[in-house]
């Protein structure tokens, strides 16, 4: 995991996870699809904790595949902030 991509928000560390998304293509789809697409997830843990050893939450970013790594990372951070806002508003931090 690339820890240099970490950001913090409301007492939580956010680690965007971006990976290549390559769905099966049919022979006629080549011209209509971008060469590379990416999906993303986000790992959330308490601020300052080691994400490889502490309880963490990993959440998939909903939506279509992204055509750029930067856009996929931004979507992951936005998703994490929305999740954290819901948890903090309800004062429920389960497993984190």
Task: Give keywords.
96 residues, alpha+beta, Double Stranded RNA Binding Domain, 1 helix, 23% helix, 28% strand
Task: Walk me through what this model shows.
- The chain is α+β, with helices and mostly antiparallel strands and 96 residues long.
- The protein is built from 1 helix and 4 strands.
- A hairpin with a 2-residue loop joins strand 1 (7-9) and strand 2 (12-21).
- The two termini are 19 Å apart.
Short description:
The chain has 96 residues and is of the alpha+beta class. Helix content is 23%, strand content 28%. It has a single domain (3-90), classed as Double Stranded RNA Binding Domain, CATH 3.30.160.
**Gross CATH architecture:** 2-Layer Sandwich
How would you state the average pLDDT, rounded?
A: 81
User: What's the N-to-C terminus distance?
Assistant: 19 Å
Strand content: 25-35%
Give the arrangement of secondary structure elements.
Blueprint: E1 7-9, E2 12-21, E3 37-46, E4 57-60, H1 69-90
Antiparallel strand pairs: 1-2, 2-3, 3-4
């Amino acid at each position: 995991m690339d820890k240099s991509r970490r950001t913090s928000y409301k007492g939580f560390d956010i680690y965007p996870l971006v990976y290549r998304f390559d769905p099966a293509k049919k022979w006629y789809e080549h011209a209509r699809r971008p060469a590379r697409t990416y999906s993303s997830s986000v790992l959330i843990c308490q601020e300052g904790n080691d994400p490889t050893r502490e309880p963490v939450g990993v959440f998939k970013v909903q939506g279509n595949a992204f055509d750029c790594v930067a856009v996929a990372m931004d979507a992951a951070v936005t998703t994490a902030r929305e999740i954290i806002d819901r948890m903090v508003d309800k004062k429920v931090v389960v497993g984190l």
